Amino acid sequence: MHYQNTPQKTEAREAYVPLGELVDLSRYPLDEPEALERNVCSDVRAKLRRDGCAVIEGFVDPAHLEALAAEARDLAPAAHRTRSSMTCYGHAPDSTVSTEHPLGRPLARQNAFVPADVIPEDALLRRIYHDPRVKRFLAQCLGVDTIHEFDDPYAALVVNVLEPGASHAWHFDSNDFAVSLMTQAPQAGGAFEYSPWLRRPDDERYDAVTRVLDGERDTVTRLSLKPGDLQLFHGRYSLHRVSPVEGERERLMAIFAYADKPGLKGARDKSRLLFGRDN
C-alpha cells in the first residue's frame, strides 16, 4: 500500500504492541464473548436503544495511552483541512425555504481529517481497527451479526483533528452508526453534545431540530470523552456537534468506519470535500 505524506516513524511505533496489551483485556476480554455479553454488550445495546450513544470507557490500556496520543499527534499535520457552509443535513442550503429553517440554514463547518492512506501499517490505530476480535465485539455491542471495514482508501480509518478554537457544527450523520476512539483530549472544551433520536425515519421533526439550532438545551446531552474511551453512536437520527476546543492542545479523535454490509464507500462528493480526492 502506498501512503501519501506518510509521517516519519515515531517512538510510539518503535515496538510491536499486540492487541492483547493495547486493549484492557481485564475489563474487555475479547476472546470471551459470553463474558462480554454479560458484563458489557447487553448494557451497551440498552444505552444505544435509549440514548443513541454508548461509551465503552477505558477500552485502551492506560499503559499505552501516551503512545496512542503521540501517534495521533504525529499524524495530525497530514490532515486535509477545509472550510464550508452547509446545513445540518450535509448539503447546501435550500434557497426555497427560510434561512431559519433547518433545510435552509447555513452552518459554518471546519474539517481536518487525516485519511487512511496516510496512516502506516504498523500504527496502533490499525492494530485496533483491523482486528477480528474487535470487530466481533463491536458487532455484538451493536446487535448485528457482523460488521465490515469500509472499502474506502481514505475514509476507512481517519483521525479527526480539532485545533484550539475549532469546533464541529450541529449535524446528522449519513451512516447508521459511528465508532470512534478518543486519542487525545483537549485541555478544555471540545465536548460532544447530542440530542438523541431527534428525527425519525418517517418524521424529520423540523420544529424540534430548529429549537436545538436556536440554542434550546432541554434535549441535549453533553459528553466529555477521556483518552482511551470508545464511543458508539447512532448519528443518522441524533443531532450532534463538538463544542469549541479551548486551551493549547488539539482534540484528536480516531474514527473507525464500519458497516453492516461489505464493500461500502463514502460518497464521492464527500470524499472530495473531506480529503480533496475522489475515492
Protein model, in words:
This protein is α+β, with helices and mostly antiparallel strands. It has a single domain, classed as q2cbj1_9rhob like domain (Jelly Rolls, Sandwich), CATH 2.60.120. The protein has 7 helices and 15 strands. It has helices at residues 19-22, 33-51, 65-75, 124-129, 132-142, 206-213, 268-275; strands spanning 53-56, 80-86, 107-114, 148-149, 157-162, 168-171, 178-184, 188-189, 192-195, 221-223, 230-233, 239-242, 245-246, 251-256, 258-259. A 7-stranded antiparallel β-sheet has the order 1-11-7-14-5-3-2. A 4-stranded antiparallel β-sheet has the order 6-12-9-10, with helices on one face. It starts with 18 loop residues before the first helix and ends with a helix. Mean pLDDT is 93; it is low at 1-12.
